[in-house]
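User: Predict the structure for this protein chain, please.
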Amino acid sequence: MSERQTLLTDFLPTTRKEMLLRGWDQADVILLSADAYVDHPSFGAAVIGRLLEAEGLRVAIIPQPDWHGDYRDFKRLGRPRLWFGVAPGCMDSMVNKYTAARRLRSEDAYSPDGRHDLRPEYPTIVYTQILRQLFPDTPVVLGGIEASMRRLMHYDYWQQRFRPSILVDSGADTIIYGMGEQPTLELVHRALEVLDSGHPDLSYDEQGNAQLTSAVLREIISGTPTAYAPAYASSASSSSPASASLRQSVMLYPTAADIPGGITSDDLVLHSYEDCLRTPRLHAENFHHIEEQSNRYEAHRLIQPTDTSYVVVNPPFPPMTTEEIDHSFDLPYTRQPHPKYRGKRIPAYEMIRFSVNLHRGCFGGCAFCTISAHQGKFVVCRSKQSILREVEAITHLPDFRGNLSDLGGPSANMYGMHGRNLRACRKCSRPSCIHPEVCPNLLGDHRPLLDIYRAVGEVPGIKRTFIGSGVRYDLLLHDWKDEALNRAADDYTRELILHHVSGRLKVAPEHTSDAVLRLMRKPSFRLFHAFKRRFDDINRRAGLRQQIIPYFISSHPGCREEDMAELAIETKQLDFQLEQVQDFTPTPMTTATTMWATGYDPDTLQPVFSAHTPKEKQAQRMFFFWYKPEERRRIEAELRRLQRPDLLARLFSPANRNYKPHDSSPAHKRH
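Assistant: Here is the predicted structure, written as C-alpha cells:
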C-alpha cells in the first residue's frame, strides 16, 4: 500500500465533507477522542469505530476537538442517531500530561508534533459536559482508560483528593469499562432492536427517523425496555432484572429502589463515598473487593452509595475468545494516521507503527499497574493466522525496511499461558497467578510463542523481529516440574537473547528490597541476579556484547530511604549506572495508589509508609544517581542524618565493589 493509494474514504469520516463523500447525512455513532486519529489497532477509538462499522453502522470520529470558544468542533457532525462515545485516549490524560513531580512532560505522545495544547485535562469530563450543553437529550457513553479506571471512588493524585465515580462529575449516561468490544456490540444489538420497537421515549428527526434518547439508553443498559424489544429481552438471559443489565457497564441510580432487581445478597455493597472520605481505611477495604471482582471470571455486581445516588458496576463479560479477538484485529485498519496529519509526527505512532500485539491481559497482578484492572488477568491470545496476516500487511506499509519493533503484549512472554484446570480458574479470586508464588494450576508453556516467533521470521520481507515489550524473567526461571516446559523456557530465553534483542534488553525488577517487592507483588531480586547470569552467559558463548537494562521505581509504598540506599549499593555492585528509573506515580484504581492514599495495604489492612512530599520523594530518587558528584554530597548528608554510616561506607567504599549476594533460591537452581 502506498500513500497515494490510501484515500480519504479509507478512514472513518472526521468532517461533514468526509461524511458527504460517503453519502451520509447523519452518523449512527460519533466518537470523540483526545488523541490524534490513527487508524491502527493500538488506538482505542479506531478499534471501536471499525468494530461498529463492521456491524453496518455509520461511524464518525472527532479527534481532539477544540473545547474553547463556540464549540464548533463538537457541532460539526450534528447529532448521532444512537450516541456520542467519549474515548479520551490510550493514556490517562493526567499521566500523559504530567510527570510524578507534577511537571509538564516534554511532549504529548498522542498529539501531532507532540503538541500539549490539543487536549484538556480530564477530557472525559470536559467533552461530556460540552455535549450535554449542546445535545442535552443525546446519550453519552464513556469508554477508554480514563473513565474505566475512575468507574468507582478513586484517589486523584493531581487534585490531591478522593473523587467519586467519574459518572458523577461528567454527567454521562454510562461507562463501558475495560476492553470495550463485547459490551459495545451487545449495546448496539440492543439499541437497534429498541429503535425498531416503537418505544414511546424515542425522538425523531425531521425525516421521521428514530433516534435514541438518554432515557431510552439508560433503560437499555438496565435491561428494562423488554415490552418494546421482546427478542432482546430473551437474549439478555434475564432470569432476574439484575442479570438483564448490560455486563461491563456502570450506571448511576438515584435510589436503591431504582437499581435493577434491587440490592440482593449476591451484590457486594461497598462502603459509601462519604464514609470513605471520613475514614480512608474503609476505601482500602473497598479496594480489596474491587480488585478481586475485576479479576474474577464469575464476578459479583458492585454497588457504592455516593452522595444521594448509587454507583452500580455490572460484572465483566467473560474473556474474549480467540475468534473474537481475531475479529477485532482483522478489521480493515489502514494502520496510518489520518491524512490531515500528513507531514506531522505523532510520537506514539512512531513507536508502534511496525509492532504487533499478540495478546491481551496479564496475570502478573503488579500492585502499581492498571493492566489487570482494564484488560483483566486472563490472557486472551490471537491466532497464529491473524498475527501472520497483520505481519504481512505491515510489510506493505510505506517506509517499512524489514524490522518489526515488537511482537509483544502487556507481558511479552505470557502468550498462550492459561490454567490447566479452567474450572478452577473460574472460581479463583487471586489478583496474580504468579505472586506470592506461581500457581500450580498455571500452564507456563513457551512453545506456542516460540512457534509464533519462528513463523513470523519466515514471512517474506521480514529481516529481524525485536521484542520491545517487558519480559517476565520469573516465568523463564521457574521450575515447572515438567522437563518439557523447562526446556521450552530455556529455548525461549536463548531465542530471545540471541535473535530478538537490539543490543539492549529491558526488564523490570522494580526494586531490590524483598519487603518492597512483596508490596509491589514482584519476585525477589535474587531472580534478577540469576537471569543476569543467564543473559551474560548466553551472550559470552555467542560472542555478543549486549546489555541488560533494568527498570526501577522509587517512592513506592513501603519504600524508605534506607531501601533506596540498599538499591544503590546492590546495583552499583552489578556495575549499573541506572537509566530507566521513575518516581512512583499514584494512578487511579491500583493497589499501590490505595496504599499511598489511605496508608493501608488493601490485602492485609496493615499500615504502610509512603513518601508523600516532594522533599521525601526527592530524598529517595537521588539514590538512583549515586554516581553524580552533586547527588553524592546529598546522599552522604542524608545517610549521616539517618545515622546510617554502614550504608554510607558500603555505597562509596571501593572495597565492597565485587560483593556478590549468596543465591540459594530453588526456583532457578536448574540454571
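The CA atoms of residues 578 and 624 lie 6 Å apart.
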